[in-house]
Amino acid sequence: MARWKLMTGHYLHTPEATEWEHVETDQASGKQNRKRFIVPCYMEKDATVCQGPGMPGDIEFIGPPTPDMVPLDDEARKLNAEYEPVWRKGEFGVGTEAVMNDLSSRLAKAMVEGPPPAAVGGVSGEKFAELQGQVKMLMEQNAKLLEQLGRQRRA
Q1: How confident is residue 142, by pLDDT bands cut at 50, 70 and 90?
Q2: At what angle do helices 74-89 and 97-113 cross, to 10 degrees?
Q3: Which of 38, 8, 6 is nearest to 21 (CA)?
Q4: 128 and 72 share one domain
Q5: Would the pTM count as exceeding 0.70?
Q6: N or C, which terminus of the chain has less Cβ within 10 Å?
Q7: 65 and 51 share one domain
Q8: pLDDT for 110-139, tens place per residue?
């Protein structure tokens, strides 16, 4: 039996599946359409969960462990080790610490390297530099006009 302690709240599927049924009635025919959905149970932080029969007070769940589950026995540690590469890639879920670290390192690298020298967003480097020069010139002209308006108001 693999056992874990939850470090955050989790929605987990349990063997005693809870179902929710949605019923719609067709206005033309009066026939009812029913859809059933299996709903996961919310487990509080610090709850002890297990796969298979566990200790008294453990809550049995179905599915893979998550990065926010701390293993309490060797079997759970083995399962966590199997899922570790998946968690690092971010395939399990966005927001895990490994995914955030990866995104942070990519952002830092991009900030150091800067934009690529080739066309960025369809604008060449030359055209962008030309546009920057035009904006600078307009700003200087606006500053002169504001200065003239200020002098006229004082007079």
Answers
A1: confident
A2: 30
A3: 38
A4: no
A5: no
A6: C
A7: yes
A8: 777 776 655 556 677 788 888 888 888 888
